[in-house]
Amino acid sequence: MSILVTGGAGYIGSTVVRELVRQGEDVVVFDNLSQGHRRAVAEEATLVVGDLRDADAIQSVFRTHDIDAVMHFASHTLVGESMSEPFLYLDTNIRCGLNLMKAALEHGADRFILSSTANLFGLPDEMPITEETTIDPGSPYGESKRVLERYLYWLDRTRGMTFAALRYFNAAGAAGPNHGEDHDPETHLIPIVLEVALGQREEIVIFGDDYDTPDGTCVRDYIHVLDLAQAHILALRALEDGTSRVYNLGNGNGYSVREVIETARTVTGRDIPARIGERRPGDPAKLIADAGRIRGELGWDPEYPALADIISTAWKWHVNHPDGYDSVDARPA
Ligand code: UDP
Fold first, then answer.
1. What is the DSSP letter of 52?
2. Catalytic positions
3. Where do the CATH 3.40.50.720 domains begin and end in the chain?
4. How far apart are the first and last CA of the chain?
């Protein structure tokens, strides 16, 4: 099978690409390298540098390669940024997704996996969050994913597109000591905490300690990036039966920001200074997944559910590559 992976040079996308090529799949990565890294892309995959805002560029990928299925990771993905830059999300994210869906259908690629998000559930009316929980996005980011999920729903009904929307809770950890998370600027909790442990930052600022949670800091469900990758591969195989599906992906365990920092202190053995700051706009107090549906239907069984293991894999990557992919051996051009 030939699979197009947009955003395949990014953190989660490149991890899925590695797993796909390991399983012998033919992979084409389409990435504008604005957030991704050439060196993160498995050598066995074909890398096309291009931008989804350019409808002709993505059409040409489908003309050149015989694509069967699409995995769409390329996206702006930051809740906080989406509150200050809504059009990057309400316009760009949606337009890029639509350009991709149109090109895919025009060229007969009728299987589609969408990276979606727990931010679909801004103020959840139940916890843990199931696929039946009311969708009410917490930010323009969540809204952009809701719209793309709805477009896929209609393309399934009108054009025979079969899709899986995978709602990630908090992706974390590293796929290996030479393959991890490298954002610029970094905004995510675990890598920032580890940069403090490495002495690259002075402190971690906790965004608010007056939430309605046991210790007042936000609670999230952290999931290892390799477990996310397995879920994508299971979902891709499942689409062969022609049934579209949505799944929540998390471990069902909630950890507060304070607990993450404390676990990182234990894992790294380093002092990690922390102080309380203002709340970050758009942050819900608590997001914990009920992933019972994908476990039951596809047999998904996370290998790294423990927070200490997740942080420990990320720590190995950060220690080996304090400057991220700049210090990874170059991928052949
Ligand atoms: N967070 C924090 N300080 C930081 C970065 C994040 O307190 O420097 C908090 C953030 O408010 C959220 C949690 O850590 O409650 C996880 O944030 P992250 O950005 O990693 O993921 P998100 O939940 O936004 O997808």
1. T
2. 141
3. 2-172+222-249
4. 24
Looking at the chain, the domain(s) classified CATH 3.90.25.10 span 189-220+253-327
| Nearest Cα residue to atom 19 of ligand 1 | 188
Residuewise pLDDT in 10s, the chain (333 residues): 899 999 999 999 999 999 999 999 999 999 999 999 999 999 999 999 999 999 999 999 999 999 999 999 999 999 999 999 999 999 999 999 999 999 999 999 999 999 999 999 988 989 999 999 999 999 999 999 999 999 999 999 999 999 999 999 999 999 999 999 999 999 999 999 999 999 999 999 999 999 999 999 999 999 999 999 999 999 999 999 999 999 999 999 999 999 999 999 999 999 999 999 999 988 899 999 999 999 999 999 999 999 999 999 999 999 999 999 987 876 644
| Ligand 1 centroid distance, CA of 280 (Å) | 8
Name the residue at shortest CA distance from atom 22 of ligand 1: 170
**Going by CA atoms, what residue is nearest to atom 3 of ligand 1?**
206
Distance of CA 20 to the CA centre of its chain: 16
What count of other Cβ atoms lies within 10 Å of the Cβ of residue 141? 28
Q: In the CATH scheme, what is the code of domain 189-220+253-327?
A: 3.90.25.10
* Number of the ligand 1 atom closest to the C-alpha atom of 190: 20
CA distance 84 to 75: 16
Residues with CB under 6 A from ligand 1: 79, 170, 187-189, 192, 204-207, 218, 220, 257, 280, 283
Q: Tell which atom from ligand 1 comes closest to the C-alpha of 192.
A: 8
Centre of ligand 1 from the C-alpha of residue 217, in Å: 10
Question: What's the topology of domain 2-172+222-249?
Answer: Rossmann fold (3.40.50)
Could you tell me how far CA 11 lies from the centroid of its own chain?
7
**What span, in angstroms and rounded, lies between the C-alpha atoms of 179 and 331?**
13
User: Would you state the torsion angle of the CA atoms of residues 49, 58, 149, 72, taken in this order, to the nearest 10 degrees?
Assistant: -30
Q: How many angstroms does the Cα of residue 190 sit away from the middle of ligand 1? A: 8
